Amino acid sequence: MYNYVLRSKKDNKWYTGFTHNLRERFRQHNNNEVLSTKGRGPFEIIYYEACNNQQDATMREKYLKSGMGKRYLRNRLKRSLFLTGLITFTLSILFAFPFLASATSNTTNYGWGENVGWANFNSTDGGVTVTTAGLTGYLWLENIGWIQLDYDGVAGATNTTSTNWGIVNDGHGNLSGYAWGESIGWINFHPTDSQVTIDSSGNFTGYAWSENAGWIQFDHNQTTYKPTTAWYPRIITPSVSTGSSCGTISPSTATSVTYDANQTFTITPNTGCHITDVLVDGSSVGAQTSYTFTNVTATHTIQANFVDNGSAGGVLFLNSISQQQSQQPSTFQEVINPNYQPSQDLPQQKLGGQAKAELIVQIKQQLVALITQLIQILTEQAMAMAR
């Protein structure tokens, strides 16, 4: 009894069987006399072995048709496959997908699977490109061959039909969807127990699941060979001044921002507190209650600084405002009469929390009134000149 493996020269697929007469069975396959391979010839024999009885041959055939058996054959025939069949296969891929030969890759290094071996992200004739929408291109698995990451070379598949599948990026580095390998079937980048992600440094993490080859690991122990990409999610990290319980910033946790998008942060002081400064990437942008990062293309930090109105720093801050305000015209009379003296000076002594809040309101009201009056004077002067 013989177990044998044929390879179709038409579609490059394998057929595994057993027979009493290998020569005759091979003739039948090539003459379209075997229903299971009809129309797929011509064939070549790439492997055969002999067994002493039919039961052993039947069990061996089942094994060779299994995932483990296929992996055994590929390892067993590694050199002959390369010399006799792999070149033809590669050429057929290049003709079917002309963009593959000139693929551009922004990803390097290797994933690892116990059954598939090393997964090359930047092979000579393939390569993987990561964008905000998803992954395109081909992985090369040393024990399996090519893995296609998208159906049509365009990132952003919906994975809803047989002609719209691929690996999707949500813009924050969280990958999902399916890749396809002729020999191992579908590969899920977001199975139930894991997910492949890309961190803020461009490093791949997590596991993908192949229905026929098991787990493929992207954050293995070989640090030097971990896959990495030039694309990475843009993270903005917010914080408040150390030890401060005087206010909040929202969002309050590290926020991933889609490339070239905007992200707004809101700074809110608690009652009896105020904002002293907001630092963006370490530089002051003033005491703002809101700040928007626009067209984000890099990582950033934002820090909100608060002070309690009743603290020493708070009193100094308020007194500084009061002193500056007392040196400026505060009414229309002062604008037109520099010798005008207000009936009351602004208080300089330490005040209670409510009094300070009322003082700030008064200062704001006076500033608004002053600006309104100045605008009115300038408008009247402009109209007079026009006449």
If you had to describe this structure to a student in words, what would you say it looks like?
This protein is an alpha+beta fold and 387 residues long. The chain is built from seven helices and 25 strands. The strands form six sheets. Strands 5, 6, 7, 8, 9, 10, 11, 12, 15 and 16 form a ten-stranded antiparallel beta sheet that branches. A five-stranded mixed beta sheet has the order 20-18-25-22-23. Strands 2-1-3 form a three-stranded antiparallel beta sheet.
Summarize the structure.
The chain has four domains: 2-90, GIY-YIG endonuclease; 100-229, no CATH class; 234-308, Immunoglobulin-like (Sandwich), CATH 2.60.40; 322-386. It contains seven helices and 25 strands.
Radius of gyration: 36 Å
How many individual β-strands?
A: 25
The chain-level mean pLDDT equals 79
List the uncertain runs: 85-104, 343-350
User: What form results from the Cα inertia axes?
Assistant: elongated
**Straight-line distance between termini:** 115 Å
Helix amount, in percent? 25-40%
- Major sheet description: 10 strands, antiparallel
Strand % is 25-35%
Overall structural domain count: 4
What is the count of helical runs? 7
Write a concise keyword list for the protein shown above.
GIY-YIG endonuclease; Immunoglobulin-like; single chain; 4 domains; 10-stranded antiparallel β-sheet; 387 residues; 31% strand; 5-stranded mixed β-sheet
